[in-house]
Design brief:
Arc Repressor Mutant, subunit A, D-Maltodextrin-Binding Protein, domain 2, 3 domains, two-stranded antiparallel sheet
Length: about 300
């Protein structure tokens, strides 16, 4: 018959004594470490042996040699102590610390910038710090993230956010100055490049040769900002450039949206002290992205 200890679990203090005695192989040295007398350790371990009905230590000369049962209990105590330490760190830090959210550049700016009022109003109960970061998040330093690409993320909950489709965009003044109304005009226009593969995909979908990229390679948020300022043609997705297109700061010279292999997803640790706030942020992201994708854009010029 298998014994259970639902009503009377061994105390953590007793298991801590077993762990120290296993490491030292000597009750007296274990007692000095824990500030407990030799006799107190002997009594506690004898009591635990009686409770468990199993031998934990056998004398071997001047050494108290742990049995396999003692080693098993010591290992269990170490793992439980580490888990408890992590829980205490999360609990004590949660009240004062900020929830750190990592967003890729194309969402941090300009997409989030246009939604700061809604962001602040709807998530006012949480102290949130937003970081712009395109690298794989380190969940020891980041509480939740929007990530790009599908890959294994052990220990993290991952759910899809949107699939990226792209189109060239530029400012109205740039389109007029460069006569950017036909596909062939694109071949001679300055391109603001941040993803050459996406440009190749779009050109293949449009049935034209991919133009040679001569401009600087910059991040997506900066490329959209540079396009608004009239420096060239950027390749943008519906989510990141939607507000600029709606408000007329950017125009879409060609009606074609080309799908890419890029997937945006949300990710956060499966175990976290502030999951309620993370879920609130994830709900807000899903809702705002859905609104961005559903918004009606001006017809391509």
């Amino acid at each position: 018959m298998v014994r259970t200890f639902t009503d009377e679990l061994p105390s953590l203090g007793a298991l801590r004594l077993v762990e120290a005695a296993c490491r030292h192989g000597n009750f007296r040295r274990a007692g000095r470490e824990l500030n407990v007398t030799h006799s107190a350790i002997s009594q506690q371990i004898a009591k635990l042996e009686k409770q468990l009905d199993v031998k934990l230590f056998v004398r071997d000369g001047m050494t108290m040699k742990p049995t396999s049962a003692a080693e098993e209990l010591a290992d269990g105590y170490r793992r439980a102590a580490r888990a408890l330490e992590r829980s205490l760190e999360r609990v004590t830090a949660s009240a004062a610390s900020r929830l750190v959210i990592s967003l890729p550049a194309s969402l941090a700016n300009p997409w989030l910038r246009h939604r700061l009022d809604v962001f602040s109003r709807e998530l006012s109960s949480a102290k949130i710090e937003v970081r712009r970061d395109d690298v794989e998040p380190d969940f020891r330093r980041v509480d939740a993230a929007v990530v790009v690409g599908e890959r294994e993320r052990p220990g993290a909950w991952v759910e899809p956010l949107f699939e990226r489709a792209v189109t060239p965009v530029c400012s109205p003044a740039f389109q007029k100055a460069h006569g950017l109304y036909k596909l062939e005009h694109l071949m001679s226009a300055p391109l603001l490049v941040h993803d050459e593969e996406a440009w190749r995909l779009w050109c293949a979908a449009a049935g034209v040769a991919a133009p040679q990229a001569a401009g600087p390679v910059i991040d997506p948020g900066s490329a959209i900002g540079a396009a608004v300022d009239g420096y060239g043609v950027a390749l943008a997705c519906r989510v990141s450039a939607g507000t600029e297109l709606e408000q007329g700061r950017l125009v879409q010279p060609f009606a074609l949206w080309a799908p890419t292999a890029t997937r945006f997803q949300m990710a956060w640790p499966k175990e976290h002290a502030r999951l309620d706030q993370i879920h609130a942020f994830a709900d807000w992201m899903r809702r705002e992205v859905a609104l961005s994708l559903a918004s009606e854009l001006p017809a391509a010029a």
